[in-house]
Design brief:
Number of strands: 12
Strand content: 15-25%
Distance between the termini: 30 Å
Shape: elongated
Helix content: 40-55%
Structural class: alpha/beta
Length: 345
């Protein structure tokens, strides 16, 4: 059920990479003396391609320690290695938007050949993204997006469709009846869009399935407390949908604290604690996004834009990486990947 929308861009990139390169951004990244540059150009001409090893592409994240974002970074690095360019990660941790904006300014000051930005608050990033674009640094965003900025493209998922998919999974699990606890984090458009999709699908296909939306922070203890309070106050809750991070783990812990049998709980992302609960039959599953795919195509997109293989006005405004369901039938594969991924860090 994984959905892909990348075939056209892949064909374009393969065709362009087989051709001789054209000039990069203003030549500002050229290193060494004029003689060195001449020698490099001669070597490039001899091989039928130019030397791009001095080009640098930056991934700017808002939590560089989170597994979701590190998977994106892994894909970004893989593309860089394939292309023969430099890649760098600029990020921080926590929920401080102003700190992230400062990190974006730092990335811009490095005068890279392209920046991919993950936006904790899309509107807050508008000025920073536009500043980079004004300096002729191509910018693409990875979820969350900054649609009001001048970014060239957004690489991510259709969050409304993911929400609809979540409603279809939950609806089937509870025969379309009951109340669904939805934990969310206020101010994150991705969560709002998933909830919108969930409620749209439920209204059209499961009219007897209602939602109880409960805001919480990103802290697991706070999520558990808020979930326990909601479950206690709403005895008809018989399922949970958790579109962000650890929330599914929090709902399971809340059920444990209340001494009740866990009901079907569907999460998002692939943190190990969630995967292990799925393996043990304690969570219904989790929706996996194409995270490494997003990072790979972000770096490749910047390379194509910077080297003039495609112009911004002809570049896709949106590139979706797809999603699928992790449940007991395939969770061990994801757990094995998690350990392999972390062992390699």
């Amino acid at each position: 059920m994984r959905k892909r929308f990348l075939v056209l861009l892949l064909a374009l990139s393969v065709a362009m990479m087989s051709a001789a390169g054209c000039s990069s951004k203003g030549g500002s990244q050229t290193a060494g003396t004029t003689a060195d540059a001449g020698a490099a150009e001669a070597d490039a001409d001899a091989e039928g391609k130019k030397d791009v090893s001095n080009q640098k592409y930056i991934l700017c994240t808002y939590n560089s320690t989170e597994y979701f974002q590190r998977q994106i970074w892994a894909g970004f690095q893989q593309a860089g290695e394939m292309l023969g360019v430099q890649t760098e990660l600029v990020g921080d941790t926590g929920e401080d938007v102003m700190k992230y904006l400062t990190r974006l300014d730092s990335a811009i000051a490095m005068d890279p050949d392209g920046i991919s930005v993950m936006c904790l608050d899309g509107d807050a990033y508008v000025d920073g993204i536009n500043k980079a674009m004004d300096k002729d640094i191509p910018v693409v965003t990875i979820a969350p997006d900054s649609p009001n900025s001048e970014r060239i493209s957004f690489l991510g998922v259709n969050n409304v469709e993911i929400g609809k998919f979540g409603a279809s999974v939950i609806g089937e699990a509870v025969d379309g009846k009951g109340e669904v606890l939805i934990l969310t984090k206020l101010g994150i458009p991705d969560c709002d869009q998933m909830i919108s999709g969930f409620e749209q699908y439920a209204a059209e296909n499961y009219p007897d399935l209602k939602t109880v939306v409960v805001p919480a922070s990103l802290d697991l203890t706070d999520q558990t407390s808020k979930a326990a309070s909601a479950i206690s106050a709403n005895p008809n809750i018989n399922a949970a949908y958790c579109p962000l991070g650890w929330q599914a783990v929090a709902v399971y812990k809340a059920c444990e604290e209340l001494g009740i049998e866990p009901f079907p709980i569907l999460g998002a992302d692939c943190e190990l604690a969630q995967l292990e609960l799925i393996r043990d039959g304690k969570l219904l599953g989790t929706v996996r996004q194409g995270t490494s795919t997003q990072g790979f195509w972000a770096c490749l997109s910047l390379y194509l834009l910077n080297n003039g293989y495609i112009t911004p006005e002809h570049f896709p405004d949106t590139i979706y990486s797809g999603y699928d369901l992790i449940d007991q039938s395939n969770v061990q594969e994801e757990i094995d990947f998690y350990h392999k991924f972390n062992d390699g860090q």
